């Protein structure tokens, strides 16, 4: 018994001493994003340095009081897309056509400017017909407009008409260290802000939850409790600065079991800026397909360290191809920064725009080589893109031409993506969100407006060819009323 007590005492003292040494030496630099003082294409950054200190209650109190006023409750109403037979669901509300009534859901968001821009998760507001934002004081409620969204990173930006709002200050997620204390701040179920504390457990985590052709996952993992309703809330450092947007938990039950994940603030900052300025994220592409290196591949390539990602394919005539990068090469650095996983590769690429030049250091047959080239947009050029979608109220969906890069990846010449499906012909047919239509009655389309014109006039039996969101191809016949 005495030995056990002695062991516990030694462990406790060691933990205290370890924390003291760590925070005495810790001195990161952060970048503060100010979206209220932006130019047409650039955001202003201000570097701030601070000294850490021994952790005590006042550190948590300061971080909480600084960050909680900017965290809001988000409530959405949406229509159920799928037809439901009212005879088999007595407790749902339906209209005269058997459609499920408004479905309510909620989450959290973070105010990023004093004039009402708010960041949250895309999955919080997906399919929403109305979005209501309630401030932390529970006294002010606003109807929000969707500025733009990026399913690839699960980020959405909202706007409410208000002034002099309490807004978060951005920190630099690159400076976060494993073991550093962070707070997860949410506003679940309109209960005012809730705060939980934990440490950064890992960085650059890819957990495969983003269902998108070009997903970007490089999560901060934390053991700070993140529960349902906290999605879209803030992960902050001990100065109350935003270092991440809380997104997911790892759980079989939907409840917190020790693993939470947040999108790094540096990615969030860039996404917000693009959506505000252009309504579409400006993402630079290389033309390479990248994958992680497992132990078997490392042995085959004679790689002894943990650095590098594998080039699994290179599109012909892409920037990477023209620069001499080939399938089988191993990318070990981007602009001098080490790459040890696909998640880190994707994160570094997410910071860049079309036209930006990047230097790639890669290994081929054990020899290190460098290649520098400019990045392209998804249309295959270096232009800044602006979102161009066409909505058909009668069809009940949005339509967008498939970008060149995605067509090349799928091996098709033409394709129209269908999304934001509501009530209408598209929903009645049963097409899935993100379905890519290749041909309608064997006719292919380059422009969404041409497809919409023909589709709106269609009646009777039709044949459709397309690609499902999971990549599976299908041809089916259906009847359109």
Strand content: 25-35%
Q: Which structural class do you get from the secondary structure elements? A: alpha+beta
CATH class of the largest domain: Mainly Beta
- Determine Rg (CA atoms, Å): 25 Å
* Helix content class: 10-25%
Uncertain stretches: 1-32, 36-53, 81-99
Q: Within the largest sheet, what's the order of strands?
A: 7-6-3-4-5-9-8
How large is the count of helical segments? Answer: 10
> Oligomer, anyone?
single chain
Sheet of most strands: 7 strands, antiparallel
- CATH fold descriptor of the largest domain: Thrombin, subunit H
DSSP strand count: 27
Distance between the ends = 80 Å
Shape: flat
Number of domains: 3
Q: Name the average pLDDT.
A: 80
């Amino acid at each position: 018994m005495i030995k056990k007590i002695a062991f516990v005492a030694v462990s406790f003292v060691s933990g205290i001493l370890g924390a003291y040494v760590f925070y005495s030496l810790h001195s990161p630099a952060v970048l503060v994003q100010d979206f209220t003082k932006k130019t047409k294409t650039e955001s202003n950054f201000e570097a701030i340095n601070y000294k850490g200190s021994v952790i005590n209650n006042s550190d948590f109190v300061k971080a909480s009081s600084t960050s909680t006023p900017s965290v809001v409750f988000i409530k959405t109403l949406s229509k159920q897309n799928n037809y439901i037979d009212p005879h088999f669901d007595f407790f749902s509300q339906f209209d005269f056509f058997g459609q499920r009534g408004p479905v309510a859901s909620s989450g959290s968001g973070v105010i990023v400017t004093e004039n009402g821009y708010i960041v949250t998760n895309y999955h919080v507001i997906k399919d929403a017909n109305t979005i209501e934002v309630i401030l932390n004081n529970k006294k002010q409620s606003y109807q929000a407009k969707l500025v733009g969204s990026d399913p690839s990173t699960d980020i959405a930006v909202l706007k409410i008409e208000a002034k002099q709002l309490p807004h978060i200050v951005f920190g630099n997620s690159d400076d976060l260290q494993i073991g550093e204390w962070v707070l997860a701040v949410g506003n679940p179920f309109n209960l005012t802000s809730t705060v939980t504390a934990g440490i950064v457990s890992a960085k650059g985590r890819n957990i495969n939850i983003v269902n998108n052709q070009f997903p970007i996952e490089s999560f901060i993992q934390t053991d700070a409790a993140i529960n349902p309703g906290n999605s879209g809330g803030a992960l902050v450092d001990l100065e109350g600065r935003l270092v991440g947007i809380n997104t997911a938990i790892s759980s079989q039950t939907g409840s917190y079991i020790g693993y939470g994940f947040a999108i790094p603030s540096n990615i969030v900052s860039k996404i917000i800026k693009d959506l505000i300025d252009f309504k579409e994220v400006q993402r630079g592409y290389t033309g390479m397909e990248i994958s992680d290196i497992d132990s078997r591949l490392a042995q085959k390539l004679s790689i002894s360290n943990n650095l590098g990602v594998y080039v699994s394919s290179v599109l012909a005539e892409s920037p990477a191809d023209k620069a001499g990068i080939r399938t089988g090469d191993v990318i070990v650095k981007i602009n001098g920064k080490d790459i040890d996983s696909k998640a880190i590769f994707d994160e570094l690429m997410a910071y860049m725009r079309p036209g930006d030049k990047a230097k790639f250091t890669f290994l081929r047959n054990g020899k290190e080589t460098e290649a520098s080239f400019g990045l392209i947009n998804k249309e295959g050029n270096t232009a800044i893109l602006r979102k161009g979608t066409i909505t058909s109220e009668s069809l009940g969906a949005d339509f967008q031409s498939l970008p060149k890069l995605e067509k090349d990846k799928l091996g098709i010449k033409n394709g129209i993506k269908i999304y934001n499906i509501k009530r209408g012909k598209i929903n009645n047919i049963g097409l899935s969100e993100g379905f890519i239509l290749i041909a309608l009655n064997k006719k292919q389309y380059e422009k969404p407006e041409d497809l919409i014109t023909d589709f709106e006039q269609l009646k009777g039996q039709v044949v459709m060819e397309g690609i499902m969101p999971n990549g599976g191809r299908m041809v089916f016949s259906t009847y359109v009323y």
